[in-house]
Amino acid sequence: MKISLLTALACVHAATAASFTFHPGASAMEVRLDGKPFTAFHYESKWDKPFLHPLRTANGAIVTRRWPVEQKTGEIEDHAWHRGLWWSHGDISGADFWRELGPEKTGKLILRGKPRTRSNRLEAELDFIAGGKRLGSVLQQFAFVLQGDLIFVDVTITIRADAGAPVTAGDTEDGGLGFRYSDDFRENRGAALRNAEGLETTKAIWGKRSRWVDYSTTRDGKRLGVAILDHPSNPRHPTYWHARGYGLNAANPFGVRDFTRDKSQNGKLEIPSGGTLRFRYRVAIHEGADPEPLWKAFAAVK
Question: Domain 5-299 has what CATH class?
Fold first, then answer.
C-alpha cells in the first residue's frame, strides 16, 4: 500500500480516536478497538516494568510475541524482559532498568497510583526504584489512533529528575523504546528489516542512526509491518537503533559508544535536578505501508 504525504496527513486529521475504549482490571488496563481487544497496559507487581501487550493490526492480527505473558507452542523463549511495547533503559544513574535479574541486580519501574485515561489517551507515572532508593521518575503517555488499516500508537516519554538529584541516562545499547515482534518477524524466517536510508538486514541497520526502522513479514499471504518513527524534536534525532534480527527493535538515543564501538564517545545525557527530558515516538502498525510518508506526517505534528 503506497501512501503519499498528503494522504498520511489526512489520515491523522480524519482518524477516529473514539474507536478506542479503556477497561480497567486488577492488574491491567485493557484497550479495545470497536469493542474488540487491541492491547492491554500491564502493571501487575510481578513485572519489573509496565508494558503494552499484545498489540494487533486493525484487522486483529497479533504482531507481538506472546511469551512470557502467555504460552504459545513453538514460540522462542529468550529475554523474558522483552514484552510487547515498553520503555526502559539499562543505565539510569548507574542502575539497570532494562534487564530483570532480581532486586539485588536490577531496578524496577513502580507505578504511582493507577493509569489515567482520557479520550484515546493513557498515561502512567512511574518511579525509578533501585536498591530501595527512588532515583527519579518517568511519565509514559500513549495515544491510540485508527485510520483504515493503519494503527498509530503515539508514545511520549518524559524522564524527570524529581528526587532531589540529577538523573543520568548512561551509554548502553540496551535501552529505549522497545518492541518485541512475533516470531514470524525474525530475519531468519524471511522478515524484512530496513531503515529510512534504504539499508536492509540487522547487520546493516543495527547501531545506525535513522528517522525510522521497519520490520515486515508475510502471514497467510498478507503483508504485515510495524515501524517505529523518531520525532525530529527528540534529542539526538535521528536516533540510534538496537535492531536485532531475532525480533527486537528499540529506538535508543543513549548508546553512542556501544553502537559506534568508539570508546572515545560517551552517549550519556544528564538531567539536572528538577529538570526533564522528553522523547516522542510513533509506532505504526500497518499492512504493507511505506513508512516514509508516515514519518513525514508525524514530523509535521508539533
Answer: mainly beta
